[in-house]
Design brief:
Blueprint lengths: L2 E4 L4 E6 L6 E2 L4 E7 L2 E6 L4 E4 L8 E2 L4 E5 L1
Antiparallel strand pairs: 1-8, 2-4, 2-7, 3-6, 4-5, 6-8
Length: 71
């Protein structure tokens, strides 16, 4: 079953630690967003393989944007 990782608010992607095809563990840091000059880390809610990565460092994304999918 696929798990979508969505942004909780709009902001800029400051750091992205994963790439398509990469295996991640539950709790592993995936990326960091900059929101109103604060760093907001996003962690993997489940273990899986990163697919459909749709963010890159420097991107500005809206609230509820699907950043990646874990399968």
């Amino acid at each position: 079953m696929a798990t979508k990782v969505q942004t909780e608010t709009g902001g800029a992607i400051w750091k992205c630690f994963v790439r398509n095809g990469q295996a991640v563990a539950a709790g592993e840091e995936l990326f960091i967003m900059e929101v109103m000059k604060m760093e907001v880390p996003y962690e993997a809610p489940v273990a899986g393989i990163v697919t459909d990565l749709s963010i890159a460092e420097g991107d500005v994304v809206p609230e509820d944007h699907v950043a990646l999918v874990l399968t």
